[in-house]
């Protein structure tokens, strides 16, 4: 073998041999023959010779030396090696391999043969990022399940909960894998278990593969070894790696293709990859092959540099063997090691980047003996697969390699082997990931692999058992986090031993850890694996160690002096880390602790959690006071503990006390969560403003929906547990001390707060009370069922605002662990939603803002379920609470339940779980009662800093206490209120019911000397605390009489200290250690600032009496409270206290008094007594300054609201009147857009208002006025089609849209045909242009002086604000109504159209009028002198021309000819008339002046156009008017000049164009009778054209029949007005030419098979003439201001013709109407017709075909429409998102499709860019003359391009809940919303995109 190898090496000749590569002579045969020969040799039973021969060949072909040398040393080496560059040799090698595999046959046939044996029942298609896949939750067993589009559509998922998604990391199709999904969801291809019927693979088919592939893969590995150079400075030179990978691309692709051949080939590959013997033989690097040796050395170097050892070093090897069995050894090492934490050596190579010098906090390194060496540092490769994976990792997971490794997964044997290999390399993966620069890409690739492996429970279990998967994962995670630890600064900065992760490190900032954490969460979702974890004590200890790294991270210190200079954003990293690395694994574990049998697991977790917490408290030196002014939001250990406790009680029936620690530990546990609650209040009170915005961000994130149930909910639950077990007085006083409001709780009117500024006191007090209310009312973990929780959450969110379905899904905190089984959109979600909310379908508001489908709370929800406590807990922004209250108020007003300003309603709570009963003791402790009493008293006395909110909370707490009082006390017991009970404190007992009636007489308070109380009690001011000195007071008798009158001093802090001492002494074990630490400096001695002295206040109140007085105060009436039971004793017997009550403070007080009376007869008596005495309440004073302050903020708010309402109403009325005057909205009298004084008929000047300077006056030559107009090019007209069948958007390759039948195309063809045969100048008068790119002019109807406009534009130019329009292009917004505009159209000075002297009908004959018209046209129109007006007219004409592109203006053959401008100008008029007709629905039946007409500027436009048209006089010779009205003498003279092209025959002229030419050639203003005259003349031509068209449509027999009947009637009197006569004449005239010839051939199609009746003939003629009549009537309406009559469709013709004056007035309407009666021939009909027909005959002589094609056909255009879209969006998406671009044949990143013509375009695609214009912009210019409507395929959104701006319009596809799904993020099925599409079409047709859509931006041609 060795000899053969040497020979081969010699043959190849290496790079030293000069000769080009020549195979050894024996192998010079062609490859196929060699392959066949070898295959035969190998098939013999004794195949040793064949095998050796093959080996030699492979050695030679697959030598790894040359190619990479070439790659490394650049070109010279390549040149030296010959063979055409570095790629040639590899290609050669691949060719050889393919040949050898196929054994001499064709490679493709070989592939097909192998595929036939594919037994795979799995799909296994592997995809990379951005692939569109599907996930069906109904069919999935694992939540990671995904399907490729093909399998999804082939399966049946109707009615399932599925969605489409874009893969982020890549994935693989699970179809056919019953471990991951239910079989019912398999697609048709993978349903059959096909392995049975597949024949066995013949041995010789794959025999060659077994020989060739090992060498091939070894060759690949050698390449990888060669190519990897250990980077010098730990920065992998990415370029080098990529270079190597590029070179290897074909090899890896070859392997990938092999995997796609199916199961048979895959099993061969598996054999090759996992066979250890093969690997050993080939890679040991022994033998004399230098190349192999070198490569083995490189491999060893790579291992070393990766910090791994090759287990040849026997010593390490030994360790590995021993520790493989168990990890406990290592774990104990860990536990021991945490003690020796403080080793601050930065020995590890990663820390040598000099970062310590940069002022960073020093990283902490754990001592090295903590690591389990075997996991972290040892790798031994035993097979190709293992080394391949090693290099895959080294090269940072190249995509191709990943795909190859994944493609193999359907092979079961491979799957297991690969998973084990992956686990073995896990630590190495982590190390590579940490160093990587592309950690994002790498993370995605890692997860792409691991999710395929670990989602499978069976596999995960197997690896856990055989490879210590859990140990490896936990150790690797721990090791990873260790690299970024710093010393914790929480509590005791100097001596703290605790270390936390540093959130500023890249590792956390970039989320580098997520692949590993995600794998961990994934495997914990499998029950079998999670149980292993929960049973393994060592693992739990290690894991708690890991979690404690996050405990207290990202510490915030309150800035007290100046604002921080740099706001750190590390909190994102911190919250993400806690959620992903701590909370999600926790939820994963919790999901397996659902039943009683799992109690043991909970005990384990709780035990180690408490141990970790105890260690933490020791490490940070915590005794009992938290350090001031710092807070961390991250307490994962507390939260683990809390959540497992909750689960234990809720699901596992564990006794709570059995898992709770001692009292001292509980007191420590509650401190930090309580600190967070207090800090939240501080942050909302703006006490942390100097820390910047980020601290607000933290407070919001903490309660935000994705975090709340892993953060605030466990914290509050833990506090509830502590509160239920600790002494209530201690707890309550701790709360007020933490919230820093202890000093505020004094009876004195003034006090001094040493820790809080006065402006923060009120909100902090509100915060403390709110917290207590939440603590006592929240039942999330204290007894609510899951469905109740879901319902409460949903109600809270809906009450804040109406919500869309998706935002609700997002806002309701689901169990954050994705695998928990509660799926968003699950049945319970939908059923609860339908129970609490009503769906409001998506509406479209006229302003153009599009609503989504919303859910809004049902009335009964407001009535019974609105829960302000839940709302406060869940609001991220405080304004949401207000919003919920406003909506609640509105509901009560609307339903008539409560008229005033209601208070948050009181709601009965779910009953508490028995384990937590102790929580209610908080409500029955003296400390709380003292606080409540004090606050009631202060509110009554109007002390400062109290608000309605405080009172609301106080009453709420009292009511809660009454609801939850334990015993119905007996009255006797209560009356014995012995003196001995009253000395220590204010109240006799701790039950609220009895304490309510207890009178308190005197209180001793400490007050500043300045306080008013001091003056009153001057003698007492010196008294000390002892009773004796009190005797000198002024009321000694009272004091002796009542024992309870002892003046009480009360200090919360002292209370708390005492309690703490007691508790500590109780736990005797600790008693000897506890030394009270120095009091923290926070509580400064009271003698600071002004001297405090003691004063004694006389109070003489009880809670009951205070409540009654409050009632008086709130209602503003004396004696307002009257006990209801005095009238109706029933109330006490059968109290109907609702569970839920609306009302304000007065109702609340009444409710409380009633409940108090119900619970005790004594209370009832006392209430009655108090009411009898009716102490007159504090007399209503004049409002003092102090009171003004406390004038309820509600009232102030109310007043502000009323003011606002008033202002709005005023504004609205002004607006309305403005609309009426300016827009003429509802006054149909005047039809002119300007305000016109119609009062005095003699005024003939039109008066205009300038909206800038506000002056009114006529428009004059010197100071012209103009209309604000928007000019835009439009191709809407060109989109009219002639068939009724709507055009659909193409959704298959077959359906294509060809624009042959559009109006624009037809007109184009016609013009070019005319230009082929006729004189150019004449052609340009025979048609109109502007079907595409015509200029449309629209106005908002406002006028301004043109000089004012110029200065306005100047000011806009200097305005630096970014506008949505470009002033340089002349764009602006109307100064009055802000409508978008870009030009000003001057108003022609002169008469007001209404009172036009020209309008009176004259009695002149038509012949006279014809002459006048001709004369008037003949006068050349001199341009008026250089006035301001004429300058403006010129400039606006220039604007009109520049509005459209040159190609839409120039149709003449001679560029720049005047005919061109002439054509363009009258076509502008045509475009505007035609568009107005379309806006009116295509006919004029509705009559009147529609809105389009109301603000029309056609009148002014006509003036401007006419003025310019008159500059071009038409030579009278060529004026078509002559041909229409005079008979030409000698016809033959025309035929003489053959050489020049003839003019266009009159019958080929477009009559409407002629009309506009005639009218615009006349001097303005035009006379009405001239107008009528022109119309009459043109109608005769039109009618003749109709007859010609009919005659061509008839067949030969019909024609002769008509000719005959007509000829008979020719001599009757009205022959010229009978269509039969005229038709017969036309036929006979045209028969002289060749027009009717050669019909037998292709013309049959045009002939209608039906015989024509006279009715059908009449209808045809009318339809032919109608379009002209409509345009003419519109024109008349605009020029002369006449109203359009309304009519039925069938009588439109007659009505319009009489309105135009075509019908003689004396015409009787009895007998059926005949169109011919409108004819009024200016010259004898038969003469002129024969003259016209002659022109046609002379043309058809030469071109009969074209002669027929050019005849004017009847107009058949339907209204323009956008393409019809399919019902379901998926049909569009599936076709277009994979469609390739026609230019570069790649699939575009952002495909889009034009909704006007269906063209597929690339948005922003560089491939289709032409001269800096991207394709969408280009298309918008070509298809819509600057307006484009595109549907973005990947976003389902429509984008509008208008000129140089664009806007996102919204989507016309909504999901089942009426919501858009922009960017298809949710991937739910979308359905067309027809209303929205109609609106889009409407805006397109009416050209109002600019006005309705507000958010425009420039696109810089980049779309």
Describe what is shown at a glance.
The protein is α+β, with helices and mostly antiparallel strands. The chain is built from 78 helices and 30 strands.
What does this structure look like?
The protein is of the alpha+beta class and 1903 residues long. It contains 78 helices and 30 strands. Strand 25 (1827-1832) and strand 26 form a beta hairpin. The two termini are 64 Å apart. The N terminus is likely disordered.
List the helices and strands and how they pair.
Elements: H1 2-12, H2 31-43, H3 48-61, H4 65-73, H5 75-81, H6 85-102, H7 107-115, E1 126-127, E2 132-136, E3 147-148, H8 149-154, E4 162-166, E5 171-172, H9 188-191, H10 207-227, H11 238-259, H12 263-274, H13 276-283, H14 290-305, H15 314-324, H16 328-337, H17 373-377, H18 384-394, H19 399-407, H20 412-424, H21 426-435, H22 439-454, H23 457-467, H24 469-482, E6 485-487, E7 499-501, H25 506-509, H26 514-524, H27 527-535, H28 537-548, E8 556-557, H29 570-590, H30 599-619, E9 630-631, H31 636-650, H32 663-684, H33 693-703, H34 712-725, H35 728-738, H36 758-777, H37 786-800, H38 805-811, H39 827-836, E10 837-840, E11 854-857, H40 859-864, H41 868-874, H42 878-895, E12 906-907, H43 926-940, H44 948-963, H45 971-975, H46 992-995, E13 1000-1008, H47 1012-1016, H48 1036-1041, H49 1052-1066, H50 1068-1071, E14 1092-1101, H51 1103-1115, H52 1130-1133, E15 1140-1141, H53 1145-1159, H54 1161-1173, H55 1185-1190, H56 1193-1223, E16 1248-1249, E17 1256-1257, E18 1265-1274, H57 1303-1317, H58 1320-1326, E19 1334-1345, H59 1346-1358, E20 1372-1373, E21 1380-1381, ...
Antiparallel strand pairs: 1-5, 2-3, 2-4, 6-7, 8-9, 10-11, 12-15, 13-14, 16-17, 18-19, 18-22, 20-21, 23-24, 23-25, 25-26, 26-27, 27-30, 28-29
């Amino acid at each position: 073998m060795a000899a053969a190898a040497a020979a081969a090496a010699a043959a190849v000749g290496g790079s030293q041999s000069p000769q080009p590569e020549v195979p050894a002579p024996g192998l010079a045969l062609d490859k196929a023959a060699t392959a066949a020969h070898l295959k035969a040799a190998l098939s013999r039973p004794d195949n040793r010779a064949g095998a050796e021969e093959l080996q030699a060949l492979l050695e030679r072909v697959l030598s790894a030396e040359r190619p990479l040398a070439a790659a490394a040393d650049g070109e010279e080496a390549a040149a030296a090696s010959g063979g055409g560059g570095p790629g040639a040799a590899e290609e050669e090698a691949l060719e050889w391999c393919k040949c050898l595999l196929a054994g001499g046959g064709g490679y493709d046939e070989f592939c097909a043969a192998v595929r036939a044996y594919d037994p795979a029942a799995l799909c296994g298609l592997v995809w990379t990022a951005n692939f569109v896949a599907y996930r069906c939750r109904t069919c999935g067993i694992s939540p990671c399940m995904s399907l490729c589009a093909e399998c999804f559509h082939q399966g049946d998922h109707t009615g399932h909960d599925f969605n489409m998604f874009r893969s982020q990391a890549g994935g693989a199709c699970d179809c056919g894998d019953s471990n991951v999904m239910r079989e019912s969801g398999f697609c048709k291809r993978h349903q059959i278990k096909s392995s049975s019927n597949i024949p066995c693979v013949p041995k010789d088919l794959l025999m060659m593969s077994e020989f060739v592939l090992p060498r091939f893969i070894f060759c690949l590995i050698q390449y990888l070894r060669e190519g990897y150079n250990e980077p010098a400075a730990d920065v992998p030179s990415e370029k080098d790696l990529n270079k190597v990978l590029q070179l290897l691309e074909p090899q890896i692709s070859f392997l990938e293709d092999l995997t796609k051949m199916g199961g048979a080939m895959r099993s061969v590959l598996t054999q090759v990859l996992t066979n250890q013997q093969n690997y050993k033989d080939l890679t040991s690097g022994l033998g004399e092959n230098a190349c192999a040796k070198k490569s083995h050395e490189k491999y060893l170097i790579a291992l070393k540099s990766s910090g791994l050892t090759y287990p040849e070093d026997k010593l390490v090897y030994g360790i590995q063997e021993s520790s493989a069995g168990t990890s406990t050894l290592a774990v104990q090492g860990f536990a021991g090691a945490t003690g020796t934490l403080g080793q601050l050596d930065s020995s590890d190579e990663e820390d040598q980047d000099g970062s310590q010098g940069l002022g960073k906090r020093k990283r902490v390194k754990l001592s090295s003996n903590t690591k389990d060496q075997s996991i972290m540092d040892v790798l031994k490769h035993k097979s190709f697969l293992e080394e391949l994976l090693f290099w895959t990792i080294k090269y940072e997971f190249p995509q191709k390699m990943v795909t190859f490794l994944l493609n193999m997964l359907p092979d079961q044997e491979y799957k297991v082997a690969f998973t084990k290999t992956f686990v073995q390399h896990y630590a190495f993966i982590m190390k590579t990931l940490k160093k990587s620069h592309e950690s994002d890409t790498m993370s995605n690739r890692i997860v792409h692999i691991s999710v395929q492996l670990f989602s499978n429970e069976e596999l995960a279990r197997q690896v856990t058992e055989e490879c210590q998967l859990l140990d490896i994962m936990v150790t690797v995670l721990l090791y990873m986090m260790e690299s970024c630890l710093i010393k914790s600064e929480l509590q005791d900065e100097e001596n703290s031993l605790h270390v936390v992760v540093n959130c500023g490190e890249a590792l956390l900032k970039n989320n580098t850890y997520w692949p590993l954490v995600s794998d961990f969460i994934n495997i914990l979702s499998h029950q079998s694996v999670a149980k292993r974890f929960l049973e393994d004590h060592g693992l739990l200890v290690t894991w708690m160690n890991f979690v404690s790294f996050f405990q207290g991270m990202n510490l915030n210190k309150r800035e007290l002096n100046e604002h921080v200079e740099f706001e750190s954003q590390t909190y994102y990293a911190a919250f993400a880390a806690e959620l992903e690395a701590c909370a999600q694994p926790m939820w994963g574990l919790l999901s397996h602790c659902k039943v009683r049998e799992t109690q043991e697991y909970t005990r384990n977790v709780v035990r180690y959690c408490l141990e970790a917490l105890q260690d933490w408290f020791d490490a940070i030196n915590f005794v009992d006071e938290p350090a001031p002014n710092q807070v961390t939001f991250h307490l994962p250990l507390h939260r683990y503990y809390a959540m497992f406790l909750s689960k234990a009680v809720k699901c596992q029936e564990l006794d709570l006390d059995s898992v709770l620690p001692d009292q001292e530990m509980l007191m420590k546990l509650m401190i930090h969560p309580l600190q967070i609650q207090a800090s939240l209040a501080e942050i909302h009170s703006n006490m942390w403003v100097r820390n910047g915005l980020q601290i607000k961000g933290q407070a919001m994130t903490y309660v935000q929906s994705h975090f709340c149930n892993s953060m605030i909910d466990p914290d509050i639950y833990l506090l509830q547990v502590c509160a239920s077990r600790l002494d209530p007085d201690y707890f309550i006083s701790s709360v007020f001390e933490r919230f820093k409001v202890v000093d505020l709780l004094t009876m004195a009117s003034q006090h001094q707060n040493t820790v809080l500024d006065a402006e923060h006191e009120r909100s902090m007090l509100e915060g403390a009370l709110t917290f207590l209310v939440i603590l006592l009312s929240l039942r999330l973990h204290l007894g609510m069922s899951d469905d109740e929780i879901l319902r409460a959450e949903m109600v809270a969110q809906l009450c804040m605002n109406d919500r869309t379905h998706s935002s609700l899904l997002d806002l309701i905190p689901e169990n954050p662990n994705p695998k928990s089984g509660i799926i968003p959109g699950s049945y319970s979600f939908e059923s609860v939603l339908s129970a609490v909310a009503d769906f409001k379908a998506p509406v479209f508001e006229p302003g153009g803002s599009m609503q989504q489908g919303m859910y809004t709370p049902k009335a009964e929800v407001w009535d019974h379920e609105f829960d302000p406590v839940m709302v406060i807990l869940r609001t991220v922004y405080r304004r949401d609470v207000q919003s919920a209250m406003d909506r609640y108020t509105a509901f009560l007003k609307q339903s008539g339940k409560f008229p005033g300003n209601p208070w948050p309603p009181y709601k009965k709570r779910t009953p508490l779980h028995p384990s937590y009963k102790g929580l209610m003791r908080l409500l029955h402790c003296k400390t709380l009662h003292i606080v409540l009493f004090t606050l009631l008293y202060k509110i009554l006395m109007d002390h400062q800093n109290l608000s309605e909110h405080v009172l609301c909370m106080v009453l709420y707490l009292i009511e809660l206490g009454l609801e939850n009082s334990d015993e119905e006390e007996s009255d006797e017991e209560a009356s014995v209120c012995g003196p001995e009970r009253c000395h220590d404190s204010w109240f006799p007992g701790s039950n609220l019911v009895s304490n309510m009636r207890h009178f308190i007489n005197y209180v001793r308070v400490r007050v500043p000397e300045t306080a008013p109380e001091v003056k009153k009690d001057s003698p007492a001011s010196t008294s000390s605390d002892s009773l004796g000195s009190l005797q000198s007071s002024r009321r000694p008798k009272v004091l002796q009489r009542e024992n309870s009158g002892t003046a009480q001093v009360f200090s919360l802090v002292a209370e708390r200290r005492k309690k703490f001492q007691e508790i500590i002494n109780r736990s005797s074990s600790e008693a000897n250690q506890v030394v009270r630490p120095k009091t923290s400096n926070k509580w400064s001695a009271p003698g600071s600032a002004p001297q405090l002295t003691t004063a004694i206040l006389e109070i003489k109140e009880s809670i009951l009496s205070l409540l009654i007085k409050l009632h008086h105060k709130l209602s503003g009436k004396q004696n307002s409270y009257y006990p209801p039971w005095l009238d109706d004793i029933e109330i006490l017997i059968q109290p109907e206290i609702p569970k839920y009550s609306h009302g304000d403070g007065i109702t609340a007080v009444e409710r409380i008094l009633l409940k108090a009376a119900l619970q005790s007869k004594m209370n009832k008596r006392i209430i009655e007594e108090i009411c009898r005495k009716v102490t007159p309440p504090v007399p209503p004073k004049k409002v003092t300054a102090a009171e003004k302050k406390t004038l309820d903020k509600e009232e102030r708010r109310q007043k502000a609201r009323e003011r606002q309402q008033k202002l709005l109403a005023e504004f609205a009325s002004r607006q309305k009147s403005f609309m009426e005057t300016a827009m003429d909205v509802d006054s149909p009298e005047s039809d002119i857009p300007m305000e016109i004084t119609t009062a005095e008929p003699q005024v003939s000047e039109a008066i205009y208002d300038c909206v800038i300077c506000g002056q009114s006056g006529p428009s004059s030559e010197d100071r012209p006025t103009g209309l604000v107009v928007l000019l835009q090019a439009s191709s809407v007209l060109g989109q009219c089609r002639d068939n009724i069948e709507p055009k659909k958007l193409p959704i298959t390759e077959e359906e294509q849209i060809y624009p042959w039948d559009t109006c624009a195309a037809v007109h184009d063809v016609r013009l070019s045909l005319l230009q082929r045969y006729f004189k150019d100048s004449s052609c340009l008068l025979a048609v109109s242009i502007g079907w595409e790119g015509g200029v449309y002019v629209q106005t908002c109807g406002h006028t301004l002086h043109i000089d004012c406009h110029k200065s306005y534009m100047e000011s806009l130019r200097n305005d630096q604000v970014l506008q949505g329009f470009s002033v340089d292009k002349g764009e602006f917004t109307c100064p009055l109504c802000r409508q978008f505009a870009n030009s000003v159209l001057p108003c022609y000075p002169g008469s007001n159209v209404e009172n036009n002297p020209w309008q009176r009908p004259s009695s002149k004959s038509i012949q006279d009028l014809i002459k006048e018209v001709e004369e008037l046209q003949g006068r050349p129109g001199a341009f008026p002198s250089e006035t301001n007006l004429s300058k403006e007219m010129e400039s606006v004409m220039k604007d009109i021309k520049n509005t459209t592109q040159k190609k839409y203006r120039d149709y003449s053959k001679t560029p720049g000819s005047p005919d061109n401008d002439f054509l363009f100008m009258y076509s502008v008029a045509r475009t505007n008339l035609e568009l107005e007709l379309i806006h009116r629905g295509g006919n004029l039946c509705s009559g009147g002046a529609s809105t389009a007409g109301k603000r029309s500027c056609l009148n002014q436009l006509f003036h401007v156009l006419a003025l310019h048209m008159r500059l071009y006089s038409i030579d009278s010779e060529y004026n078509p008017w002559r041909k229409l009205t005079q008979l030409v003498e000698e016809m033959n003279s025309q035929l003489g000049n053959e050489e020049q092209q003839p003019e266009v025959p009159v019958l080929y002229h477009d009559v409407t164009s002629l009309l506009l030419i005639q009218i615009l050639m006349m001097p303005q203003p035009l006379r009405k009778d001239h107008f009528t005259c022109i119309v009459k003349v043109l109608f005769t031509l039109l009618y003749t054209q109709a007859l010609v068209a009919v005659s061509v449509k008839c067949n030969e027999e019909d024609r002769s029949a008509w000719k005959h009947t007509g000829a008979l009637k020719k001599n009757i009197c009205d022959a010229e007005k009978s269509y039969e006569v005229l038709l017969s004449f036309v036929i006979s005239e045209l028969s002289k030419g060749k027009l009717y010839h050669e019909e037998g051939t292709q013309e049959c199609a045009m002939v209608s098979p039906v015989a024509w009746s006279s009715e059908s003939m009449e209808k045809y003629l009318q339809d032919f003439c109608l379009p002209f009549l409509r345009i003419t009537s519109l024109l008349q309406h605009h020029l002369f201001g006449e109203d359009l009559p309304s009519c039925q469709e069938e009588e439109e013709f007659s009505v319009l013709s009489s309105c135009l004056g075509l019908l003689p007035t004396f015409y009787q309407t009895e007998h059926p109407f005949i169109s011919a009666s409108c004819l009024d021939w200016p010259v004898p009909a038969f003469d002129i017709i024969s003259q016209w027909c002659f022109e046609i005959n002379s043309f058809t002589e030469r071109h009969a075909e074209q002669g027929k094609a050019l005849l004017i056909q009847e107009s058949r255009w339907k209204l323009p429409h956008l393409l019809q879209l399919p019902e379901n969006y998926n049909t569009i998406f599936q076709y277009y998102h994979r469609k390739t671009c026609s230019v570069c044949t790649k699939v575009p990143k952002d495909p889009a499709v034009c909704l006007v013509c269906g063209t597929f375009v690339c948005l922003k695609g560089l491939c289709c860019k032409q001269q800096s214009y991207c394709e969408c912009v280009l298309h918008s210019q070509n298809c819509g003359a600057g307006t484009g409507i595109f549907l973005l395929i990947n976003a389902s959104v429509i984008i509008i391009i208008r000129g140089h701006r664009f806007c996102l319009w919204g989507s016309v596809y909504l999901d089942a809940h009426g919501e858009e799904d922009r960017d298809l993020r949710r991937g739910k099925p979308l359905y067309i919303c027809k209303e929205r599409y109609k609106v889009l079409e409407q805006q397109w047709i009416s050209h109002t995109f600019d006005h309705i859509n507000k958010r425009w931006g420039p696109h810089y041609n980049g779309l």
